[in-house]
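Q: I have 602 residues here and want to know how they pack in 3D. Can you give me a structure?
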Amino acid sequence: MSNSMTDFLNVLYVVFSFCSALSLGALKGIFVGPIASSLLILGNVGVILALLPAQVTWTVYALVKTKRFDATLKFAFLFALPPLFGLWLILSIAGSVLVGMGYGFFTPWVSTFEAFRQVGESKKFLHCIVDGTWGTIKGSCTVVRDFGDICYHSYPQYLKELHEGSGSDETHSIRLIEVPGCLAVGLMGLIVEIPLYTAIAIIKSPYMLFKGWHRLLHDLVSREGPFLETACVPVAGLVILLWPLIVIGSILLAIFSSIFVGLYGSVIVYQVYMQVSLTFHYLDILTGFMISLSMFHTSLKTHIWYSMQERSFRRGVAYVIAMVSEFDEYTNDWLYLREGSILPKPRYRKKKASHSAEFPVGASNAAGSNAGCLSSEAPALLVPSLAPSRSIREAIQEVKMVHIWEDMMKGCEMRGKVLLDANVITPGDLNECTKAKDSQETIVGLGLPSYAFLHCLLHSVKVGSSGLLLTDGVDVTQQNRPRERVLDFFFQPVMVLKEQIRVLRLVEGEVGFLEKITLFGCNAERFEAWDNGSLVPQDALRAAQIQAISRRVTGMTRSISKFPTYRRRFRDVIKALIIYSLERGGSSASYSSRRVASMELP
């Protein structure tokens, strides 16, 4: 009888908590939502309109200077820029409004339910009132700042790679004659993918709705998954209440992803055109010394071009058809329907594409950009999964993305302090990073995070870690890594890079050489000035392998630095290092505390 009474009281407590949190969260959303939404919407729209003239100028300059396009194609792109920027204005402003409304009104609501996870009973009521108020307003300002970093810093970096990273390799240039086929397949992809993806998502949405409710209610009755902990029941109850909105969001997400999946057909066509260009390149080399075969050489190139043009178009069409079947098959798997798909699935590559979460690693280019972090396969589909719910204890074991960000910045700060103590970097380097027009090209802006990332890899190899060992001892592996799309493009290449370092079996002197070229890059004067016991390998091949490791580390760091949260967090690292140099009493440090507090990286 006592157990029944206890269960009854627990049920009453859960129901009362849920109703109280629902009402209090709605009340906070009414008062805080308009303020937070207004800040986010007005801030983002202000950034968009203020930077539009500069972005147009940067884009035109990059198009004119790049060697990836021929003159005719550049001229065509210049005429296409006005509608493209008009589309950017419409989508960015509309997206800012939707994000602002959702963030401003739902964040206080969700924060109220999250307050029930607080252990201390005395502070739980206080957290229910306070959480999601001032934090939501500050979060809106943070979103605006990160969006400004994307528009003002990340976008010019991508354009810089376009016109500087292209080099003189004409085999990868795009010519106007290649554009019609790419545009035709891209347009066909939009016409086919968008309506079919929409139809499949809408047809399966009722099943997703009831399947999700069935899963959540089953966990509620059996006290599994998110309902295992009593303190988390109100949060899970909110999920049940908002599940229809999640289903609607998944439909919109599927429609949104279909745009990029359809446009990727142009990339499939262009990859075949690249094969044509490489074929022509080697054919020119073979016949360069055979003048008498010039007519045969010309006719052979014409035959190859038209046959490859036809094959590239067929592959593009096959891709468009196959991706509809892929989407149907993926949704069947995630909704636990029958395996496979009744839709046709033609092959559009020589080798069968892999559908695993792993991404193939390409070779690093000379500039080291991306360091092979991008996959050559079709973009992954954005569809929520209805896998069985995990318990709270299991979910806690998964490393969060914010944990990796914080550890990365902590590593930069720790290595920066060590280098300051050893006078390897100076307060003048910190000053240069804060004043440089492009802080990512300075020793501190690029060399320091690359150096810290390298030491993370070296330490992981030294202790025999199966993944990436963070500074706090957490080992990030394939099993516990964050399941976020952004990390998918980096985790597997990082693991490949770590394995390459392990296979090299670097001795102490070679590690010092790798550290120097990673930190100082092409700065020969600083490279020679740092005596860290480095040993330049006598074997030219081994030296080239070590330099390639350095380029990949720098390229990955450069790619990560384009993320909006990176710049904001790294700015705090620079402030901490400046304060540390002041506390050491360095004669070169000429900052006041007020200047450090208000410092902004250019």
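Q: Anything worth noting?
A: The first strand starts at residue 468 and ends at 469. The longest helix spans residues 2-65.
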